[in-house]
């Protein structure tokens, strides 16, 4: 049932079948309908999610209540509000399904169990944290050092197939531009 998660984990660490069986027994599956929320800002996230099928977006509201898309999560990726998860504080943002999605749920207890009981559990946690950090570091640098056209041209590399799966106003929001500006960019290409 958790084949993609197992494959992704084994790309990062050596995992015995016994370790996998014990770990996967602690996980569950959650179906999320399109436009439903995995969780909303203000809730304390106590789970990490692995996207088995579907597409999610991370949304943060500004002071005026305007939603800003700051991240997408596709098949084969982990997602939660990591800072809030680690600090056990209310989430700063919400996670919403953009398609009917199937998530594997990793409760805090199973993550903690993995750190202690998997031979390379600490390594897995470190590698996932490094991936998360480098992604967000690259994102910040791109917002400040690349033109909107360059960011638009690079989004398919980061999120393959995203342009055909997500409404254009969400793409514009992710790129940090208005939908009108995105239309101009697309016409100029």
Quick tags:
189 residues, alpha+beta, Jelly Rolls, four-stranded antiparallel sheet, 8 helices, 47% helix, globular
Describe this structure in words.
With 189 residues, this protein is of the alpha+beta class. The protein has one domain (3-145): Jelly Rolls (Sandwich), CATH 2.60.120.10. It is 47% helix and 23% strand. It has eight helices and eight strands, in the order ααββββββαββααααα. The protein has helices at 3-12, 17-24, 82-87, 108-117, 121-145, 148-158, 168-175, 179-188, and strands at residues 28-32, 37-39, 47-53, 55-61, 67-74, 78-79, 94-97, 101-107. It has a four-stranded antiparallel sheet with strand order 1-8-3-6. Strand 4 (55-61) and strand 5 (67-74) form a beta hairpin. Helix 4 crosses helix 5.
